[in-house]
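Hi everyone, sorry if this is the wrong subforum. Our group has a chain we'd like a structural model of before ordering constructs, and none of us has done structure prediction before. Sequence below.
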Amino acid sequence: MENLIVAINAVLPMFLMICVGCIARWRHIISDDAVRQANALCFKAFMSLLLFYNVYSSDLKASFNGKLVCYCIVGILLEFLLGLPLILWVEKSPPARGVMLQAFFRTNFVLLGLPITESIFGRDSVGEIALLSGFFIPMINVLSVVALEIFRGGRPDLRKIAKGVVTNPLVLGALTGVLFALLGIRLPHVAESAVSSIAGATTPMALVLLGASLDFSKFKNSIKDAAICVLERLVVSPALFIGLAVLLGFRGVALGGVMIAFAAPVAVASFTMAVQMDGDADLAGQIVLLTTGLSCFTLFGWILLLKTLGLF
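Answer:
Right subforum, don't worry. Here is the predicted structure as tokens:
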């Protein structure tokens, strides 16, 4: 029961904020144009500052687990490389392909990593997970840009992909955070307070905008693609990478980091990025919504299993 409460407390608030956005759309409180403009603001400013602050406020010299960092980076890269031929086989639409490929490896680690770790292992254990995010979040964002740019217009353009990567606000935010943390650069108190406040507002804003952007009438058009991504994200990928991590000797907080990295739902940022980069936004929103809801049960199952086996 305790583990179920942990999972519900991590996921249910997200659903409630999405519902606020759905109600705003249903009641015509916000227009479609306003939602598009707000999504642009969230993507280009709020989310980049969130990533910057998460890395900037971490102690990169403490709680470093090189084995965990390398494992997660290699695992995410494998998800990208193995998912690409599968998606090319099952889906013909370029905008949908980019969204599906992104869903295969982009988990909601930023929003769920620290809360779940603290709930299971205590506040003193979050440093290792915060540090992990500083290393592989830039990689996730680079791969996300590549995934969407590859299928933007249906024909790969290496120059366009490179430009999209180096100018992406999320990539710039995460890398700037790493740079500040490594060099020990500290923002003035007033600026740090402002950045912290914006970072704290990012998740609610992104979730409400997700709800306001969802068009449920279009869900039936992409149920097959969404089902493939849900199965991969919540069942296949965690079973493969958590199982391998156990065989490699991961235990405790490190194994918890692996679980969150490979079993968490698809990141809300994937929807915002799809909107901004001409991906299939309806499919992206459906995948986020379904994986977020079902992860309440699948995360509970993984936590219960690993605790029962004495691995946490």
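For your construct planning: The chain has 13 helices and no strands. The radius of gyration is 18 Å.
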